[in-house]
């Protein structure tokens, strides 16, 4: 059977679904091909925190891009949830950053300045004594000597958010199919079709949003897409009494209270190839770190332990833009640990590049040919 699609997107994670959504708002029908289901990998298991002010190269090269995407998230909340009927719990959060000694308090000064400088975007920060923190969150460890109360970061249910993007695109005429990509049909510097489940889907444009599973694509297109897996594990815990009220972080780990009352504790970082086995070592480490901040977590019930693979590049920045040497292939991948945050901006920029040849969102630093310039091998 012969299928056709205006734009075929390989990968049903947040960046692929965001590209499908923004393209669909322009009347362009897309086909998302995902081998195991939309949001079935890292986009479905991420903690869903949206912090545009801290992270790798934030502040730094990714600062402007992160804030642009954060603001796109805010713009999406009402219309996307209303259109799809999917409540993905988009919300502004309070974060308590805590310290156990004077050196830890001094280290928090950098964060205090960063959030103070972002007041124009609605962020607020205040220094609190230990007693001030305990008044806000009585479950905090009494070893804590002080910290920061930060307002302005946001959060979403990552699985539901990604699903909402896909559903909105579907309502606008796009489709999502479960399938394995086996190769491309090419004509010169153009991909004219994608082989899926033994069938050919003809298309005008291809978007590669395959995360760490980019080796086959690299080989088929004869170009470097150096995205590798970074394993991360998270615990979902249920306290015996009450719930944690605020996000909590101490520089070693984080606790994310969820609308259903669970406390997520994350997250590990390991380069172990494509291993997604749950480990006792990660469980012990995360639980211990979480209980240091909230001692009641020691006796909490383990509801679920998850592992996923985040897509990271050698310089920890995304790959967004035209695939070198190809007239109708675009790369939209490598968001690392900020995939849920970066998703809207990566999707919007990809849609802009496909339809207009340029984007108001600056992705010039994210071109794939930067790796050839620094000598990264295929």
Shape: elongated
Give the C-alpha Rg: 21 Å
Q: How many β-strand runs?
A: 17
H/E series: EHEHEHEHEHEHEEEEHEEEEHEEEHH
CATH class of the largest domain, named Alpha Beta
N→C terminal distance:
34 Å
Counted by DSSP, the helix tally is 10
Structure notes:
This protein is of the alpha/beta class and 378 residues long. It folds into 2 domains: 204 residues, 3-Layer(bba) Sandwich (FAD/NAD(P)-binding domain); 144 residues, D-Amino Acid Oxidase, subunit A, domain 2 (D-Amino Acid Oxidase, Chain A, domain 2, 2-Layer Sandwich), CATH 3.30.9.10. 31% of the residues lie in helices and 29% in strands. A hairpin with a 6-residue loop joins strand 16 and strand 17. Helix 1 runs parallel beside helix 6, helix 1 crosses helix 9 and helix 3 crosses helix 6. The C terminus is likely disordered.
How do you describe this structure in short?
By secondary structure, the chain is of the alpha/beta class.
Present the secondary structure layout.
Blueprint: E1 3-10, H1 14-25, E2 30-34, H2 42-45, E3 49-50, H3 63-84, E4 91-99, H4 102-116, E5 124-129, H5 130-136, E6 146-155, H6 158-171, E7 175-178, E8 181-187, E9 190-196, E10 199-208, H7 215-221, E11 228-238, E12 247-249, E13 254-257, E14 263-266, H8 280-293, E15 301-312, E16 319-322, E17 329-333, H9 339-356, H10 370-373
Parallel strand pairs: 1-2, 1-10, 2-7, 4-12, 10-17
Antiparallel strand pairs: 3-6, 4-6, 5-6, 8-9, 9-10, 11-14, 11-15, 12-13, 13-14, 16-17
Helix pairs in contact: 1-6, 1-9, 3-6, 3-9
